[in-house]
Amino acid sequence: MRIVIVGAGMVGYSLAEYFSGLNHYITIIEKDKELCENINNKLDVFVVEGSGSSPAVLDEADIKSADLVIAVTPSDEINLLVCNFAMQNGVKKRIARVKSNIYTENTPNVSLEKLGVTSLIEPELEVMKRVLQYVELPDVIETANFQANDVYLRGYRVTKDMPIAHKTLAQIRRMAEDSPMLFVVIVRTGRSLPPTGDQKLLPGDKFVAIMPKESFKTFCTLINRKISKMKKIVVSGDTLTAIHLAEALKPLCEQVILTDPDLEHGRIAASMLHGVEVFHLDSTKSDMLEEMNIKHVDCFIAAGKYPEDNVMSCLLAKVEGAGMAIALRDDKRYDTLFTSLGMDHIIYPQEITLNAIIEKIQMGSLGTHLQLKTADIEVMRAKAGKDSPVTGKSLQQLDKFFKKSIIVGCIIQGNSVIIPRGDTVIQENDEVMVLTPKKNINLVNKAFDLGNGA
Predict the structure, then answer these.
(1) Domain termination residue (choose one: 330, 351, 372)
(2) Are 154 and 87 in a shared domain?
(3) Is residue 101 domain-resident?
(4) First-last CA distance in the chain
(5) N or C: which end of the chain has fewer CB within 10 A?
């Protein structure tokens, strides 16, 4: 497949690296000369120096021959313009990253599809979804939603008060009654255990379960957790993400406060938010956190412009007695250190955006969505084709082929979400969510006859 990527920032570069590794033909358009030189030295891709808004530059990139165009520059307007030019040049798939909501909210007279966008990626929205999942049930250790939020993946540490403690997976299945769910990962003292029916869950174990959203209420009962409103949440930051988070958190909390270190940005935030208190305050200073009575805050979320400040303010908030602390950060270095110091969750917006784009592109074939923190396991999605080795086979029949190391978490048949059993048969065109160690990715490719296509 011929892919043109416009914008070589962290997301654009990562996309080029990922898809060139799958033997696709990649062209990158980037106006920054230094970035172009860096890409030429590191990746086997064709680089065009210039702006994606220039028809001449797009011609040089041979956009007419592209199967897919991905526009991920810092400018929403350029990304939309690139998609429009790509549409005029006959490109079938056109993805735009759009950070602002001015094109997507309350705009009945604006059609992004007519502008040329076939798929839209909204980083702010994706980040908000992830934060809300953590706030929804605070002690969750792994969370992701799939298939337009119809499939939930949740990970927890087993505690003594959970009804599932000291129960086998077979017993838990009976306790769940008509609410299907599948325990796909169990980790005990750093070692993965096979999620077989006779395997017990013991206090201290970490587990990951997957379920249709209709089963989530029963799941919460089984782990003795209730979705309830927090009393007080503080969002810190001088970004649009911080504003959107403060607004989105209102239904989940009795009191939401936004602290903004930028006076002018804070005024804008105050004009946009209703029912949210806005303070001009620098959360990297402990005396200001004390002034906020931070020890009575259930959740502190740092979503400012500067990732290191986000981490620092979260660590300070924890020292001062705050409950859960969540920081937005793009660099994964030292994340183990930060969590050992008391950080509850670190969210990586660039990684979330990258995975969202990969999922859009590879829907129907294969897409790595996320790597679980609890084990060296990846969640992948694959589509069973007519001639795929898995098609027409039950999971019992596939057990030897999968070598007991590949787990089918759920199957999407049309509009139905199926949590499979041993006698479940994979049918043609089923979309299958697979959990597998990295070393078995090639086996998944072979099982679904994916090759290198996307």
Answers:
(1) 351
(2) no
(3) yes
(4) 8
(5) N
Same domain assignment for residues 290 and 374: no
DSSP state, residue 426: P
**Residues near 153 by Cβ (< 8 Å), separated by ≥ 6?**
142, 143, 144, 145, 146, 208, 209, 210, 379, 409
Kindly report the number of other CB atoms within 10 A of residue 49's CB atom: 16
In a domain, 133, yes or no: no
Any idea what the CATH number is for the domain that residue 114 is in? 3.40.50.720
| pTM score, whole prediction | 0.76
- Asked if 244 and 289 sit in the same domain, the reply is yes
Structure token pair of residue 260: 């903004």
How open is the CA angle 96-22-41, to the nearest 5 degrees? 80
Q: How far apart are CA 73 and CA 390, in angstroms?
A: 40
Among 158, 192, 222, the domain boundary falls at 222
Same domain, yes or no, for 395 and 438?
yes
In Å, the largest CA–CA distance within the chain is 66
| Rg (alpha carbons) of the chain, rounded to whole number | 23
Per-residue pLDDT of 58-103, as tens digits, reads 999 999 999 999 999 999 999 999 999 999 999 999 999 998 777 7
Question: How many domains in the chain?
Answer: 4
Bridge-based pairing of strands 416-418 and 407-413 is antiparallel
Q: For residues 136 and 80, what is the distance between their CA atoms, to the nearest angstrom?
A: 34
Secondary structure percentages of the chain, helix, strand, coil, to 5: 35, 25, 40
pLDDT digits (tens, 9 = 90+) for 243-266: 989 999 999 999 999 999 999 999
Residue listed under structure tokens 């028809």: 55
* CA of residue 240 relative to chain centroid, distance: 19
